[in-house]
Structures are given as structure tokens and as C-alpha cells.
């Protein structure tokens, strides 16, 4: 068990399929709030991506509070693929706890992409030592991306 800011008690566990629908719902709502557009994939496609595609190349972990999903991170030794926090838990230390796990498991360098429009994520990553090293990654959402890097 970990304690975030504002008393949020959470535990971080490896993702399990039983949490799939709740995780995808949280992920989609968080992303929509961050970029101002609905996900282009169906709920079922998103769940398949979470259960079958993402774990093949990344460690996937979720943060739980009172057995409810409040965050997800997918990472490997060199990159963070996904990091989403429940909209009601922004600023509670959930993202910091998940990001710390990825940093500890990294090779000493991590990269990630975030949407340029996602100012909250940009502030968060920059606060945690990430610096912009590139721009303009192609993505399905057709939004400008920023490539960030962190070095130990």
C-alpha cells in the first residue's frame, strides 16, 4: 500500500484481465478530458489492445484505491507507452507513484510521447525531469505530439 497526496491510499499491482472493462473506461475518460476528443476505437478494440497487444511489449500495472482502478501505466526498460490517471485523482500522487516504478525499472533513459494539447501531462512530465527532444509524431488522433526523454 502506498499513500498519495490528499490521503489517497492505493496499491499498485500488475494488470489483470478482470480489471479490463473498468481500466478501459477510466483510460478513455481520462484521455478524452485531456485531449478534447473521443477515442477513435471501439471499447472492445481498446480492451483487446489492453489485454492482448500491450502486454506483449510492456509491463502493464494499475493503481487501485478501494479496489477501483485509478491509474494505469505501460512501460518497458526504454519507454512509457501509456500513463493515464482517473480524472478524479489528478494531483493525488497516483501518476508520480506509477512513473517512479517505470523509472526504477528503466535502463536509465525513458522516452514517451504526449499530445501537445495535453498541457497537464506536459507540466507533469517536465516536473519529473522529462525534456522535449522531438515533435510531430504521427498518431491516429491526428494531433501534434511531443517526444520527451528522461535520463537518470
From TrEMBL:
InterPro entries: Acyl_CoA_acyltransferase (IPR016181), GNAT_dom (IPR000182). Coiled coil: none annotated. Keywords: Transferase. GO terms for molecular function: acyltransferase activity, transferring groups other than amino-acyl groups. Residues 10-152 form the N-acetyltransferase domain. Pfam families: Acetyltransf_7. This is GNAT family acetyltransferase. CDD domains: NAT_SF. It comes from the Bacteria. The lineage of its organism: Bacteria, Bacillati, Bacillota, Bacilli, Bacillales.
Amino acid at each position: 500500500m502506498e499513500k498519495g497526496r490528499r490521503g489517497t491510499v492505493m496499491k499498485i499491482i500488475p494488470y489483470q484481465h478482470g480489471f479490463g472493462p473498468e481500466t478501459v473506461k477510466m483510460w478513455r475518460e481520462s484521455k478524452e478530458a485531456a485531449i478534447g476528443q473521443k477515442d477513435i476505437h471501439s471499447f472492445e478494440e481498446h480492451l483487446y489492445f489492453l489485454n492482448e497487444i500491450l502486454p506483449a511489449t510492456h509491463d502493464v500495472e494499475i493503481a487501485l484505491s478501494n479496489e477501483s482502478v485509478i491509474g494505469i501505466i505501460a512501460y518497458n526498460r526504454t519507454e512509457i507507452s501509456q500513463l493515464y490517471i482517473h480524472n478524479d485523482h489528478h494531483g493525488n500522487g497516483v501518476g508520480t507513484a506509477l512513473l517512479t516504478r517505470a523509472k526504477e525499472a528503466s535502463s536509465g533513459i525513458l522516452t514517451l510521447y504526449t499530445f501537445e494539447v495535453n498541457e497537464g501531462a506536459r507540466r507533469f512530465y517536465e516536473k519529473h525531469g522529462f525534456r522535449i527532444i522531438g515533435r510531430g509524431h504521427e498518431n491516429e488522433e491526428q494531433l501534434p505530439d511531443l517526444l520527451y526523454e528522461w535520463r537518470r
